[in-house]
Amino acid sequence: MNSLPPFARVIKEQRDRKGMSRSQLAEAAELSYPYISQLETGLRKPSRNAARAIAQALDLSVEALERTIPGDVKDRSQVREAQQFSEQLLSGGPPPGVSELRVASAPGGGGEHAAPGSREDLIGDILDLVEEFDPGERLDVLAEVQKRAMQGMLDARR
User: Fold this and answer.
1) H/E element holding 152?
2) Cβ distance 127 to 133 under 8 Å?
3) How much is the pTM?
4) Are residues 72 and 138 in the same domain?
5) Which of 56, 64, 114, 134 could form a disulfide with 121 if both were Cys (CB 3.0 to 4.6 A apart)?
6) Which residues constitute the domain of residue 132?
7) Is the pLDDT of residue 41 over 70?
């Protein structure tokens, strides 16, 4: 069994299938080589924007690639689901719930995830940023963000 996380395995194998080097993927996705390397070796979890850029560079749907990222890596059922999805994605068969693996070029060719710039997408980006902090600091960071947001709303009312 492969020891790489599902997302890392998918981007590595898709990159290899396309005959791309890591630096070529980094350039195509407009991301740094060290970041691509960390993602591909499983050292980092991608941000939503990075997953979107990598999906486009590898001609995958964003929805398909995001389903290879478990929401909680400590939840075995989520990890297992992401692994199963990545296996189906890499085998060439249609993964469950995703009928088209290529990035839709037509506007509105949506999927189950929020459109870029939507409220849900922005919340996802905020969560990605919070996850950059050590787990012990995250509650303090969220409390500070909430405090500043509330102060901003109070200032705006005045």
Assistant:
1) helix 138-157
2) no
3) 0.60
4) no
5) 114
6) 114-158
7) yes
